[in-house]
Every structure is written in structure tokens, then in C-alpha cells.
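User: Quick one: structure for sequence A, then sequence B.

Assistant: Sequence A:
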Amino acid sequence: MKLLLDFLPVLLFFVTYKIAHGDPAQAAALATQSLGFLTAGGVFTPEQAPIVLATGVVIIATLIQVLVLMALRRRVEPMVWVSLVLVVVMGGATIWFHSDAFIKWKPTLLYWGMGLALLGGRFIWKKNLVQTVMGASMRLPESAWTKLLLSWVGFFAAMGVLNLIVAAQFSTDAWVNFKLFGSLGLTLAFVVGQGLFLARHIQPGSDA
């Protein structure tokens, strides 16, 4: 269920954008009617409406995600809170200024924020946060934990840069596709690579 809750906001963003992109005139009317009060001009054009509607939906979906976790008395992970703040701030700016640039920056800020958190844990608090999360279920040499941490830092840094490249060099439609399929595919490939790395270094006595 947690995986579904984590994935749902991105999926709803994608679906909303695609539906609105298929009928931009109707999307503009709906966006103006439902979100016009949140913007200075009060009116959205057919070109602006798909990303505006998708942004409004992802803000609501992320809020619901947090509320459901709280209602179920589940722990809301720190990065979920960070994601909520970013999507409200950057998404709100997208709606207010009629500009998709803000929501396109959100994934990059989240990726870089996660990478900086890992680095901060290692060099400021002297903790390997990857080991903190995974250490209870497996035993690895200290050098392997360090490599694992640095690989995640590198992955988050690269994904942040890649998101900006796609956002700047391709259409909004292409960026929306990348946000769902590209990011998910690259993350799955990275996790598989991490699994192969762990298989080589895991020590006897691990629960994994």
C-alpha cells in the first residue's frame, strides 16, 4: 500500500496532463473555473491549462498522501514532508505565474535535497543514512556501505541534472513522459544494479 501511495501523485499528474492535453480548450475552461482564483490574471490559456491542472491535482494528491499516512498512524518519512513542501511551493508558483518552469524544477530540488541529506549525514553527523535504514536487515563491510552511500548521492545528483536537461531541451509533453517513465525506469535500473552490488558484498549472518 505504501508503494501505491508513493506512486499515486506522479501517476495522477501524468494522467491529468494527458487528458487535459487532449482537449486544451476544455482544460482551459476547467482550469480557469477551478483554479483561476489562485492566479493573478484569473484566466488560463489552452497552452497553460494542461500543466496547471496536472499541478493542481498533484498538490491535492500529495496532501492526501500525507493525510492518509497520518490517519493510518504510519510514519511520514522526512522526504515525503520535503516533497509536500516543494510541490506546494513550486506548484503554487506554477499556477500563480502561469509558468511550468517552477514545477519542472521540483524533481531536481527533491533529488538534490536527498543527495545533500545523505552527504550531510555522512560528513556532519558522521552517520551513513543508507546503513541506518538497511543495516538491520543485512551485514556489509564498512567500505561497501560507503560505496553504497556515494552511489546514491551520485544517482540523485545525476537525476537532478538530467531532469533539468529534459525540461530545458524538450517539450513539456516530453518532460511529463520522462517524469513518469524515464525517472521510474532509471530508478528501477539503478536499484537492480544496487542489488547486484549487495549480492557480491553481503556477509554471512545477514537476514537478507
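Sequence B:
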Amino acid sequence: MSLLVAAKIVWAAGVIGWYLIRLPFERKVKRERVVDARDRLRELILLSCSTLGLGITPLLWATSRVFNFANYPYSPVQFALGTLTFIFSLWLFRRTHKDLGKNWSVTLEIKDSHRLITGGVYRYVRHPMYSAFFLWALAQLILIPNWIAGPAGIVGFGILYLFRIGREEKMMLDTFGDEYRAYSARTARLIPGVY
């Protein structure tokens, strides 16, 4: 098996893993009553940007020749590093869902029984799920030897992050007030002790 085929398999396995991690949590939160949902159309557009970068573009690379002109030489080191990064991103993704429980949602929402989670991986950063998605995007950049499909995840998810993070933090402040303000003062957004 060539390294390129192996990279496609790892990418596909990572996406399937992501889906399998999220599915049970998605089912659980559907039963929760939403009391605050913000910017539905904006959220749909941002989620589409992320899906285009992390899903559709690499899928086209993996299943067609449309981006072949942008392929570049690939090494076993890139494959190994990309694979390990993807595995770590999936671990963090699962852990964030487990720590959030029913407080999780795919869009900007506050549930009826919502509470501020500050334990588990949330003890170190306020948005570890975004950290997991950025790790996925980094894994894609390393794993996919293509100048379009590789960086597409960072671009697509980066757009979602840049246009959502301020609104999400405002929603948390509106909901949890001083409790969230104190939590923000002692935690970083994405990378412990850095940002």
C-alpha cells in the first residue's frame, strides 16, 4: 500500500471516528429544551465553511483527481505525525463531549438545565472542543500532501472560529455573568497557558 493510500485511509477513519464519537451525544442533547439560540443563519453559514474545509475538500482529494495538480512529495514522517495528531484530536474531541454532557450543542445554544463546566479538560482551556477541531485541521494539513486539501481544514474551521468565538463568549457572559468572568480570568481560550 502506498503512503498516499494510507493517508486517505487514516483521514477517512478519523472522520468516521469523529462521527461515531459525536453521535451518542447528539442523540442525548436532542431531548434538552433550548432557552437561548443565537444567529441561526450565521451559524449555518459558519458550519458550512467548516464542513467544506474539514470534510468536502479532503473528500474530493481522497476520492477524485480534481486536486492532483496540487499534490506534493510525501514522507513517512509526515504520515506518522499526521496520524498521531489526528488520534490526539479525536481523544480530545471525545473528552470534551464527555465533560460537557448535555451542555453540548453544535450551534450557539443554552439549554434549560445548562451549567458552566469548569472541570476535566475545561479546567485548562475554555474551548477545548475548538482546540480538538484545530488539531484535526493541523492533522489534515500534515497528513494530506496537497496544497489545497491539506490547509482547507485550517481555513474552513478558522473562519468558523473567528466569526463565532466572540459571540459565544458573550453568550456565556450573558448566561453565567461573574462566574464565567472569573473562569475566563483563570483559563486560556485554546492552548493552556498560551492563548
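The chain has one domain: 3-186. The domain at 3-186 is CATH 1.20.120.1630 (Four Helix Bundle (Hemerythrin (Met), subunit A)).

User: Thanks, that's what I needed.
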